């Protein structure tokens, strides 16, 4: 198995958190560890549903577990979230591009005036 690229990791996290219940679980766990029953009550879903979502979040490394007596408490994995925060910052750091800095490709049929690739004029094809 290969190590995930930053784009693959971000895409997998976005897929996981695209389910509202999982996103809400992460929000709840930011306040501290909770057991399945506690999560189920706060989310208004069954403990079985919570367990299925936790299984996926744990497999991705987003959530950790710790047995406390008869209960298992689940919390967020701070190391993983720190890495994701750094990747997300880089991922969403988009700077505006000035019109004269835009790059286009000859293969696209671009003939935009001042194009750094084709030097064409807009409208010519």
Report on the architecture of this protein.
It is a single chain. With 125 residues, this protein is mainly alpha-helical. It has two domains: 6-91, Arc Repressor Mutant, subunit A (Orthogonal Bundle); 98-125, no CATH class. Helices cover 46% and strands 11% of the residues. The chain is built from five helices and three strands, in the order H-H-E-H-H-E-E-H. The chain starts with 5 loop residues before the first helix and ends in a 34-residue tail after the last helix. The mean pLDDT is 84.
Structural class: mainly alpha
Form type: elongated
> What would CATH call the class of the largest domain?
Mainly Alpha
Following the backbone from N to C, one meets helices and strands in this order, namely HHEHHEEH
Measured by DSSP, the beta-strand proportion falls in: 5-15%
State the distance separating the first and last CA atoms: 46 Å
Question: Number of DSSP helices?
Answer: 5
The biggest sheet, with number of strands, parallel, antiparallel or mixed sense and barrel status, is: 3 strands, antiparallel
Poorly predicted ranges:
none
Q: Overall pLDDT, averaged?
A: 84
- What is the assigned CATH homologous superfamily of the largest domain? Winged helix-like DNA-binding domain superfamily/Winged helix DNA-binding domain
> Which percent bin holds the helix content?
40-55%
Radius of gyration: 23 Å
Q: Looking at the chains present, what oligomeric state does this protein adopt?
A: single chain
Strand ordering within the main sheet: 1-3-2
Q: Architecture of the largest domain, according to CATH?
A: Orthogonal Bundle
**Overall tally of domains:** 2
| Number of DSSP-assigned strands | 3
CATH topology descriptor of the largest domain? Arc Repressor Mutant, subunit A
